[in-house]
Automatic annotation (TrEMBL):
Protein name: 5'-nucleotidase
InterPro entries the UniProt entry points to: HAD-like_sf, HAD-SF_hydro_IA, HAD-SF_hydro_IA_YjjG/PynA, HAD_2, HAD_sf, PGP-like_dom2, Pyrimidine_5'-ntase_YjjG
GO molecular function: 5'-nucleotidase activity
SUPFAM superfamilies assigned to the protein according to its UniProt record, in alphabetical order: HAD-like
Length: 230
């Protein structure tokens, strides 16, 4: 990316980009399973839960399942796969407690705070997230990064989910930003990168684990590499 581009506003995804979702989720399940005295070998559970959650989130983002179905099914499917019988009532309680306790863990990806400190004096910083409104603000606050961001746009506030163009446009409207001077940083190629490109924004693909997907897309393996682009 040409650093001479006249960028004024940087929009970040939150989960899997700044906020270490998998690590914090694991700690949350360890806590609530202990609270409920569930005898579950956590690595066995996570081995099935993580792909189940990823698959169901994909369906949720396409509006093929509801938020309630996502919360229930990711647990129900995973318990069934490890051979654990849990009542629907208890699954509902666990699902609620998971959402309640998830923001209490606040691990960020390496250099997240450093790069925000670097960017803040130079750019307006914002969040665009498909995460649930009731937990995203808690994540930002408890991890100590909420003050860096001017606009926090979630899918429930927007009424649509990324990659729908409307959520990007609503975030830019609130930020008084325009696409040609805005950049989206995120970990999901289809949702964050293609979604932002489709409305004319610049993009930076945070891709720490996977091989390069598209040579025409600016990619970084670590957040500190944003300095090479902005």
């Amino acid at each position: 990316m040409n650093k001479s581009l006249d960028i004024t506003d940087v929009f970040f995804d939150l989960d899997h980009t700044l906020w270490d979702f998998e690590r914090n989720s694991e700690l949350t399940y360890h806590k609530i399973f202990k609270n409920y005295n569930l005898k579950i070998h956590l690595p066995d559970f996570l081995k099935v839960y993580v792909p189940n959650n990823t698959k169901l989130w994909g369906l949720y983002q396409l509006d093929k399942i509801s938020k309630e179905e996502l919360r229930y099914q990711r647990l129900k499917m995973s318990f069934d796969q490890i051979g654990l019988s849990v009542t629907d009532h208890d699954i509902d309680l666990l699902a609620d407690d998971y959402i309640k306790h998830l923001p209490s863990f606040n691990h960020l990806f390496k250099d997240a705070t450093n790069i925000l400190q670097y960017l803040k004096p130079k750019y307006n910083l914002h969040i665009i997230t498909n995460g649930f409104a009731e937990v995203q603000e808690g994540k930002l606050k408890n991890s100590g990064i909420a003050h860096y961001f001017d606009v926090i746009m979630d899918s429930e506030k927007a009424g649509v989910k990324k990659p729908n163009p409307l959520i990007f446009q609503k975030a830019m409207d609130l930020a008084n930003a325009v696409p040609k001077k805005s950049i989206m940083v995120g970990d999901n190629y289809e949702v964050d990168i293609l979604g932002a490109k489709n409305v004319g924004m610049h993009t930076l693909y945070f891709n720490p684990l996977k091989p390069e997907t598209d040579g025409t897309i600016n990619q970084i393996k670590g957040l500190i590499q944003i300095k090479n682009h902005l």
